[in-house]
Amino acid sequence: MFQLLKYLSDYKKESIFGPLFKLLEASFELLVPLVVAAIIDQGIANGDRGVTVKMCLLLLLLGVVGLISSVTAQYFAAKAAVGFAAKVRKVLFAHIQTLSYSDLDTLGTTTLVTRMTSDMNQVQYGVNMTLRLLLRSPFVVFGAMIMAFTVDAKAALTFVVTIPVLTAVVFAIMLVCIPLYRQVQEKLDGVLLSTRENLTGVRVIRAFCKEKEERETFERRNGELTEAQKFVGRISALMNPVTYIIINAAVIVLIYIGALRVDRGLLTQGAVVALYNYMSQILVELIKLANLIISVTKSVACGNRIQAVLEISPGMTFPEEAEAQKGNPASVYAVEFRHADLCYPNAGEHSLTDVDFCVKRGETVGVIGGTGSGKTSLVNLIPRFYDVTGGEVLVDGVNVKQYTKSALRGKIGVVPQKAVLFKGTIRDNLRWGNANASDEELLAAVATAQASEVIAGKEGGLDYAIAQGGGNLSGGQRQRLTIARALVRKPSILILDDSASALDYATDAALRKAIRHMEGRPTVFIVSQRTASIQHADKIVVLDDGRIVGLGTHDTLLQNCKVYREIYDSQFKKETSQGGADGE
Predict the structure, then answer these.
(1) Best exposed site among 443, 447, 561, 564 by fewest CB in 10 Å?
(2) Cβ–Cβ under 8 Å, residues 462 and 439
């Protein structure tokens, strides 16, 4: 947590002025009991209305100046805290963007969202309260005790006994509460996880009629969080009654001693009231200090969680520009897999084993296999979303690890399995592929992706506003626009990762034909469950349990590859038999 404080360096002035103005406010507050004592002893006791009015005006002045000091202090503290949190949030977000897919898989989306939101807000609150109260509360506590001694040393001995007792009670309750608050934060993570899973998987939950089970799971986690919060709340709630009992007992002793000394003429009535006010100030400030320490402790815990993410070194590093390779134009191969292996973090077995084949420039390669056979894992190695754990992958004759991130990914257009669009216009989404693309280039990519009718059917065309996640588009429309987004880049390697699953066969065929006739003819990888989508590819890679069990053309694989033939027969045998029956 304390390593994060370096981001306060841009707010040194605010971090100094905030506490200073709070101390100034506290100084005025410590003068108030003395002014009240003067009103009682000099104004009311002597019937001197002039003194009373003068002292009341002085009280008003102290109140106004104290209010101005307080508002100024809170302004500086809030500015420093908000600026600090904004800077840390920016750094954290930038750091998350550098993490590899493996790092993100290990951390989990829910964890990162919690760090960016709940934890960050708690850290911001902690910094704000620290700047406002960390110096003020001890200053008032010890200042009130010193001021009490200036009023009457013997009566002030009550403060010497009361303050340590109050401090012990407050800190004992605080020490019990701190670990419990950490448990509450962990249970909050569980509730957030359940919430996120239900919101993102709402369609799956409803499709399988699992609403009741998910409600029960959420209610259980929410109940655990509620019970934990209630338990720690009951303990922390002891602070006010216990401290009030102690302070009231001290007040009784103080008034008793004061009454005896007033009766002897050693102390004035105004002085007793002043001592009582100082005791009240001490009570208030000790409770504030205890709450501050609990808040700071929670903030430190949250800050440590943020710092833990920042300390994660990216599992994938890219070379500097000067050391990077640009590709070998002389290479006849666009992509080469040389005995490549892939094992995901904490996985028991390899997802890919001994993958070895080459793809020439301009070729179309189909990748097919059963569910979980490693199709997506294979194509994810090309743009280096994951690093091989054995062997190597080459693009344009150069190992992918020798490219800068921008150089490698600039060569490749990827259409992922899940069609993801962002809130904004169609034009904004398409320009993710090329920020400087003209409308003519955008429309050309849209035409190739068979999405012209999507644009034509929307009010505003390219300026049509897409909802978050593309919620106002159908699945096929989202897929075609994500393909167009990749084509806008004009990549030399195009990866279609089962990205036409929502398209009908005619549209799918038209898409593949249009891509083959693209200018520059990119090398295309088509991952699909349909043999119809890949049967015209120059080369088909058949995967089974992470291994290549077939490599060749459609006709060759039908004769030589059992796995491919089974997939083909499962999709076309029924249609063929029906056609034969009709012919008879």
Answers:
(1) 447
(2) yes
Q: What is the pTM (predicted TM-score) of this model?
A: 0.74
Residue by residue, DSSP assigns 105-141 as: HHH-HHHHHHIIIIIHHHHHHHHHHHHHHTTHHHHHH
Residue 323 has a pLDDT of 66
For residue 6, give every residue at least 6 positions away whose Cβ sits within 8 Å of its Cβ, in sequence order, or none: none
Decide if 243 contacts 123 (C-beta within 8 A). Answer: no
Amino acid 576: pLDDT: 46
- Could you give the CA distance from residue 194 to residue 187 in angstroms, rounded to a whole number? 11
| Identity of the amino acid at 137 | S
For CA atoms 36, 41, 46, 48, give the dihedral sign: negative
Contact between 335 and 523 under an 8 Å Cβ cutoff? The reply is: yes
Model pLDDT, residue 580: 41
CA distances from 204 to 471, 473, 477 (A): 16, 19, 21
Q: What is the pLDDT of residues 442-498, one digit of tens each?
A: 999 999 988 898 888 888 888 889 888 888 888 888 888 999 999 998 888 999 988
Q: Which of 462, 423, 432 is nearest to 444 (CA)?
A: 462
Could you give the domains of the chain? 2-310 (1.20.1560.10)
CA 90/CA 104 separation, integer angstroms: 18
Place of tokens 């279609």: 496
Residue 40 DSSP class: I
What's the CA gap between 255 and 567, in Å, rounded?
Answer: 93
Assigned token pair, 58: 């002085």
**Contact (Cβ atoms closer than 8 angstroms) between residue 14 and residue 76:** yes
Alpha-carbon 337 to chain mean position = 36
Q: Report the pLDDT averaged over residues 102-112.
A: 81
Hunting for tokens 């754990």 — which residue is that? Answer: 389
Taking the C-alpha atoms of residue 158 and residue 92, their distance in angstroms, rounded to an integer, is 50
Q: What value does the mean pLDDT take over residues 347-368?
A: 90
Alpha-carbon dihedral angle through residues 34, 35, 36, 37, given to the nearest 10 degrees: 50
Taking residues 389-393, report their average pLDDT. Answer: 92
Residue 320 C-beta-side C-alpha neighbours within 13 Å: 2
